[in-house]
Structure formats: structure tokens, C-alpha cells
Amino acid sequence: MAGFWSNAFGTLKSAFNIGLTGPRLKDSSGNLVIRNSVDSADANITAAKVSASGNTIELNSDAAGSGADWIYKLTRPSSGMTAAVELTLPVDDGTANQVLSTDGNGVLSWASAGSTSALQARDTTSLAFGTSSPAAMFTLPANAVLDRVSIIIDTAFDGAPTMSVGVSGTASKYVASTEVDLTATAETRFDIMCAKTANGSTEALIITYSAGGATAGAARVIVDYSIPA
Q1: How many Å is the Cα radius of gyration of the chain?
Q2: Distance CA 61, CA 65 (A)
Q3: Domain map of the chain by residue range?
Q4: What is the pLDDT of residues 143-200, one digit of tens each?
Q5: CB 72 within 8 A of CB 58
Q6: 120-226 architecture in CATH?
Q7: Alpha-carbon span 210 to 128, nearest angstrom
Q8: By the 8 A CB rule, do 91 and 110 touch?
């Protein structure tokens, strides 16, 4: 009987059972370990909103699992780690469209999303028979390489219209008027592959268009470009 009470008060044993089949509080070199009743595995620590077990922490662990009430889990990788990882979060919640960036030592900070944007991009400009010339397209970023210009005829133009793609002062820098026939049938596509070197500054691309008496017609001008890493 004395042994029972000693165990209950934790004076003689290194573990304390909560109930006959409940979890066991155990001393492990000065650390508190929670094990199952037979000491064969770790037991979860569950509160109203948090659960920590093994490699996973669950927020809102008592979630109903419907509507807006769901569990949110934080889990370490199951393999591939070669050292302990410590992450220090930013001091605030950042601003819209920022992303988390690391200094390589686990210190996280907010950075502009532009620093991690895709290196491939596309822009589309609509062209119609009554478009005024020159038609503004978009500004090509500095150091970007224009890879391809595609002109897709949605509705065939009548008359004798022409178009070219370039910049102010060099109207046919990327597409010459002789490379596109706007009077082609609908769904015709012209692909012009560009081999220009990257421009160190930005470029405002334009379409130089001549209606040539056209009273009908519509097309899309699609520009694919890349920004070298």
C-alpha cells in the first residue's frame, strides 16, 4: 500500500499514470515525456486548440472538419534533413503581395514578390480594323529577351491593312509588315521568332497599323518574352 501511495505522489517511481488506462507522465533525464499507458509509444498532448505529437503540431485540433472549422497542421519533412532547422519569423505580417525570403541562416523576412517572379511571361494586345496607330502594347522589362511574337487572326480583315511590331523610331524591330497578312482567314496564326539580344533598358512596344481601307477584322498580338536569371 505504501508503494502505491509513493507511486501516486511520484516519490519512488519515474512515471505517473493518470487513471488505470490513461497516459503516463514520465521523467526522461529531467524532461517530461508523455507516453501511453503501457509505455510503448508517445501520447498526444491535446488542448482545445492545439495538439503536438511526434513530427506534427495541429492548430485547432478539435475542429469539426466542416465549413470554416478545419485542422491546420505544421509538419517536419519525413526524410531528407541533414541538420536541425531553426526558423526566425519576421517581426510583422508584411504587406500585400510580399513573400517570405531567407538569409540562408533561417532568418525570414518579407520581400517583394517581384524578386521571385517567373522568368517567362506573356502579354496580349488586341488589334481591330479601326485601331488608331501607333497602338500601345506594353513595356518590355529591362534585360528582357523577346522570344516570339504571334499574330492570330480572329476575323479576317478586308481592304489592304498592314501592321508591324517594334518601338518608336524602329517600327519593325520585331515584326515587319511583310511577315503578316491580316487578310488571312480566321484562325490563321503567324509566329515570328525573334533573335534580338537583350536590351539593357525598358522598351515601350507598339503596333504600327495602317487600315488600308479595312472595314472589318480583328486579331490578337501575343508576345512571349523571358528575363535571364
Answers
A1: 33
A2: 10
A3: 2-75, 86-117, 120-226
A4: 888 889 999 999 999 999 999 999 999 999 999 999 999 999 999 999 999 877 787 8
A5: yes
A6: Sandwich (2.60)
A7: 11
A8: no
